[in-house]
Structures are given as C-alpha cells and as structure tokens.
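Re-run with default settings, no changes from the original entry. Doing this only to confirm the output is reproducible before filing.
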Amino acid sequence: MVNVLIVGSGGREHALSWKLSQSDKVETVFTAPGNGGTENNIPINIDDLDGLADFAQKNNCFTIVGPEDPLAAGIVDKFNQRNLKIFGPSKLAAQLESSKIWAKNFMKRNNIPSAKFEIFDDAQKAQDYVKSLDYNVVVKADGLAAGKGVIVCNSNDDAISAIQTILVKKTFGDAGNKIIIEERIDGIEASYIALSDGEIAIPMATSQDHKRIFDNDKGPNTGGMGAYSPTPIIGDVLAKKIQEKIIDKTIQSMKNEGIVFKGFLYAGIMLRDGEPYVLEYNVRMGDPECQPITMRMDFDLYDYFAASVDGNLSSMPLTSWKNQFAVCVVLASKGYPESYVTNEEISGFDSISNKSYVFHAGTKNSNGKIFSNGGRILGVTALGNSLESAIKNAYDAADQISWTSKYHRNDIGKKGLTYL
C-alpha cells in the first residue's frame, strides 16, 4: 500500500482525497495544506516545493498536484530530480496553462482549432486594434490569474475598459504584462478533461462549468460557481471529434516538440455550428468539474494516476462511470469574486442526506467547528438518476447549509435540461 500526498486546499483537492481514500491500494491520504473538510492536513504551503518534496520523501508518498501554481513553478521537475513519484505535467508542459500566449501560438502552429488572436503589451496599440474590428472580442491576461483573467466583451468600450484593467491598472499584476485579444466565438461552452501519460489520453466524463457569478451567466468570471456531469451537449460523435482533433493532437504535438505531457489535460471548449474550438487549456483537473466527475467514477482512480506516471496507460481498461448525473452547486461568500467577509461559522452539515456530499474549499476547522476562509466555500454535490433529480438533490442539500454571507447561483445544471 502507498501513502498519497495531495497538494492544494480547494474543493478539487477534497474531492480527489475523498476518491483516493476509497482505493484499497492507498493507506493514508495527506493534504497540504488542505482545508476544513480534508483529513491529515499538513501545514506546508503549495509554493514550498522543497518542503513538499521533503515530506513526500519522508512519508513514502505518491504525490498529486491539484492547482496550477505549483505546476507552473516546476514542482514535477523538482520531484523527478529526487526520484519521487508525482502526477502532473512538467514546467515546460504546464506552459499550456501558465502562458496563454504560449498556448495560442502552440495551437496556431499545430492547427488546433481556436479563435483568431493578436498579442499586445502596449495599451494604445491594443485599443487602436480593437477600434479597427467589426466583431466583439475576449481580452485575456497572459499569465495565471486564478480563473479571473479573461474578460468577455460586448462592445468596443468593454474591450477598451478590459485593456485598461489588465495592461494599465495591472489588476492581475505581472500576469497582465501582455494580453491576448481574440475573436469572441459565441456558442455553447463545455469542459473536456483527459488523463495522459505522454503517449495516449484517456477521457474523463464530460462536464459543464458555470463561470459567471450571477444566474443566466451574468456578471464577472469566477473560478467556477458550479458544474454538472455528464453534459448532453457533448454526445458520442462530438466527443470523438474533440478527442481526436484536440486532445490527441495536443498530446502528440507536444511530444513532437520534445515535451512529454503527463497529467490531466483540460480543454475549455466552445461549440459553434457543431464544431469544437479551444477557449483555453488547463493542465490539471477543473474545479468545480472535479467534484461531480469524481462522484460518478466507478473505478480506482489511483490506478490511473500510477499508470500515467509510469507511462503505461495503454495497458489500462476503459474507465467506467455510474449511470447517473452529478451536480455541484458552489456556495460562496457574498461579494466574491471581489471582496468578501471571512471567518463566519457554517452550520447544517449534519442534515445532509447520503445522496449528497459536501466538498470543502475555502473553509477552516477550529475546535471542531467549520468557518468560512475564502471566496468559494463549499461544493455541494449530489447524484440523481436524471439531471433534473440531481439538480434537485444538490439544491435540497445546499439549502441545509447556512452562514451569514452565503451566496449561490440558482441555475446550475439547468442549461443542460434543454438538450435532453
């Protein structure tokens, strides 16, 4: 049996620790630094790469990296240098997420379908370019911005404001030293996540995230306000097209450029006229998509992580999934993604039925009581035999949880109902 160290403190990391603790090959799951819902928390921050490696070595851990920052900082390279087993992409491979400019140029030279774009580091030139266009755009910060560095614009004025926000006001710091201005592709958005060993990629269940803070996809982007799986938007034919044209092509193109991609490859997909386009890559499991996806897994996830690291995914059987829908409703603090209050006591956990599971994100445990400790606080996730019943079960459970600044969207999963 093996010990597992999960790096991170969000809902994704709680979901991964929950799933991996069910494996008969895993003895103890540690989480660093973890949150109020995870067990065996280790007080090591995600940017302390040496501290994490020391702990993994001392405790004979197989390490899984949840968030993007340590991947971008080269945690996998550091662990590999010390012959420590770790799941995730190298620093070079993580550029697919850590630099949107690198990713867009990669897609362009490898003919991976994506929106047309231009790159700027000068605000005036960017504004002049926007004024010359007869279509709406999306303005993106080049670097990592916790899921918030993408501004979807409805007009030239919006675009100019976005350029000012990122390049001039430096709202996202150095992540906004350069920007991408790309054509806004209007369509249906979905998430497609696969697990790769550098040679092949095995698809996970399909899902759909809800990025905006308010109902009906209004307001600013967030890290994600909820998700559901599977999404009827991606049928078998479309899934095959995404797998071949985007996922497999990305893995092979990376390999052809001398970069072995191991880990989760996440493609944010926009569907227009039945054709998939890559909005963005992530190099880790999505959050909150991870929560409903893990709820539906009917296999030992550890086996696939180990096969990815060892480079032998081709020997693994096809993944199997519960024939149910899962819905995750994110409970956040009012004011997120801007300013919000923390340290409020949360109650109602004892009232949750066994149809649901509450994954913790921005929480802390103090003397057995749970307090808010971030923007996105909990991911209330439920199964159902239909999407409608999964939505109802998730919201019934979410209603049991309370704290002063609790906020959530009321329409998670509903866009999927129109496709059933």
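DSSP finds 13 helices and 23 strands in the chain. The two ends are 43 Å apart (CA to CA).
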